[in-house]
Amino acid sequence: MEIAVLYGSLILFCLLWVWRFDVRLRRLRASRRGQGLNSFVNSLAHRDFDSDILHETYRYLQAQAIREFPMAPGDRLRDLLAFGDEEIEDALMSLARHFNCEQPSTQALKHESIDTVEDLVRALQRLRDRRRGSSDGFPKHPGADHARLSR
């Protein structure tokens, strides 16, 4: 009898958690109606990110999402995609492979703080910049972002 109550409580908790997550995603989707890949790319146009990294990261994360919804740079990977450390690492490694970048070491990953979609994009851009030979992974002048995005 006690075990049935325990299992029932666990099932009820899980159902409530899933329902809450679903309601949150529906509200988010409604608040971002009309937004998508283009608005994501445009919202980061002032940064120094290659447009192909922006496009592919967005597509990759959309493919990983439980339900499709318009992503924004500030979306937390753990909250909206239910990513844990492993999924964040997998995303970075998979996208780095896609762009032929050097795979970051486990040690480097521990020091990389990837919390949001923009953090993931930034980490990928740093990997690509290192591959190109930039010493710190960032451009030397602030106007470089517009040239990259117009490619």
What does this protein look like?
By secondary structure, the chain is an all-alpha fold. The protein contains eight helices and no strands. Helix 3 packs across helix 7 (117-132) and helix 5 runs parallel beside helix 7. The longest helix is centred in the N-terminal third of the chain and has 30 residues, at 2-31. The protein is flat. The relative contact order is 0.13.
Keywords:
8 helices; disordered C terminus; single chain; mainly alpha
Write the layout of secondary structure elements.
Blueprint: H1 2-31, H2 37-43, H3 51-64, H4 77-80, H5 85-98, H6 106-111, H7 117-132, H8 144-149
Q: How many strands, which pairing sense, and closed or not: the largest β-sheet?
A: none
Q: How many β-strand runs?
A: 0
Uncertain runs are 135-151
Count, helices: 8
Strand content is: under 5%
| Mass-distribution shape | flat
- N-to-C terminal Cα separation, in Å? 66 Å
Order of helices and strands: HHHHHHHH
Rg from Cα = 19 Å
Helix and strand composition category? mainly alpha
Task: Give helix % range.
Answer: 55-70%
The whole-number mean of residue pLDDT values reads 78
Briefly summarize what is shown.
Helices cover 64% and strands 0% of the residues. The chain is mainly α and 151 residues long. α3 crosses α7 and α5 runs parallel beside α7.
